[in-house]
Amino acid sequence: MRVAVAGVEFDNVTMDETLAWIVDRVRRPHRPALICTGNLDHLVTLQQDTSFRAAYQEADLVLADGMPVVWLSRLRHGKGLKERVAGSDLFWELARVSDTSGIRLFFLGGSPGSAERAAEAVRRRYPGAQVCGIYCPPFETFHTEEEQQRIRARIHAAAPDVLLVGLGAPKQEKWIISSRDAVQVPVSIGVGGSFEMAGGAIRRAPLWMQRVGLEWVHRLMQEPQRMWKRYLCRDLPFFARLLVDVLLFRRTI
User: Fold this and answer.
1) Average pLDDT, the chain
2) Most buried pick, 81, 108, 152, 191, via CB within 10 A?
3) What's the CATH class of domain 2-206?
């Protein structure tokens, strides 16, 4: 069952259901699958970027990465989405599942060195986790055919079950859509800054801030110059408009 928020259809699944879906897809692969982890900033970008929206429409699973998405769904639809399934949490849950099941993970992207540090953190916590490949493509040459061939060759050689792509949205989702038939990985997931968080370059917000939807405040405090326009000029005004629309809708029913 899916729940619509701002014109985007989110899958109404828990973390456990998501993990079961991924494991089943790995064990019984069909065509390569894309998972999108949608947050408020994605919703803003989707209003303006048609190719990003097309990627979401093609996604096999769309998860609610942010609490504002969950709140809006519940205000609009009553029960709404069951829970938040954040990409940064899914990263660690997949590492845990890899430790027990042998599912092979490949880390693509992130800032230089972040994927390596994330893999080291995974192996410390879950010694049996199978991180079968790591590659951070150079930003300057990323779009060249030579670099794309190199990326595909490294992924093919590693033969992962799950490809975690930390190129940032919407770049990561667009790349997965354009490349998934070529790389033939059962499941690909855009994970944004999860490598940086797992490796310690970015500190994740305390659990209480995550639960009350203030994780963005913590991120803003860490990177004010880079994040203030995104959060204060784009995301908050957009959320306010959506909230007003939902409240007006509730008054009419």
Assistant:
1) 93
2) 191
3) alpha beta
